[in-house]
Amino acid sequence: MTDAPVGRLHHLIVDCPDPMAEAAFWSAVLGDPVTYAEDDFVVVSADPTTSGLAFQRAPGLTAPTWPDPAVPQQMHLDVMVDDQAEAGRAVLALGARQLPGDHVYADPAGHPFCLIRRPGWAHPVHPG
């Protein structure tokens, strides 16, 4: 066995009932454009040749029931922000809903995500 990786991340694929709606939400939250779109599959990434988030139609999806484990998270994103309160207001205005826990929200399809304070090693999200 070598130390070389087997592969490289392409996209995190997220099942959802409406791929374009999910992509529009995450595009607005992360500031990356929709770079590929079909009826059943939409990608948000920095540019067409960069890995990102992909949203795939799943009409019968049962949304997670955070924090109740009856329906697990299925996926979870931590979104790095400069100001958690300001970012919380922004995601709520975009269609998120607040869940129990510190800075925990659900996207429009019910997937949980957290707004985390930017670590000291990271560049500011909004320099200025």
Overview of this protein structure:
- This protein is an alpha/beta fold and 128 residues long.
- The protein folds into two domains: 1-60, 2,3-Dihydroxybiphenyl 1,2-Dioxygenase, domain 1; 62-128.
- It is built from two helices and eight strands, in the order βαββββαβββ.
- The longest helix is centred in the N-terminal third of the chain and has 12 residues, at 19-30.
- The radius of gyration is 15 Å and the shape is globular.
- The protein starts with 10 loop residues before the first strand and ends in an 11-residue tail after the last strand.
Report a brief summary of the structure.
It contains 2 helices and 8 strands. By secondary structure, it is an alpha/beta fold. It folds into 2 domains: 1-60, 2,3-Dihydroxybiphenyl 1,2-Dioxygenase, domain 1 (Roll); 62-128.
How much is the radius of gyration in Å?
Answer: 15 Å
Tell me the overall shape: globular
Order of helices and strands: EHEEEEHEEE
Number of helices: 2
Number of domains: 2
Q: For the terminal residues, how far apart are their CA atoms?
A: 47 Å
Helix content range of the residues, please? 10-25%
Beta content comes to: 25-35%
Mean pLDDT: 91
Please count the beta strands (DSSP E, at least 2 residues each): 8
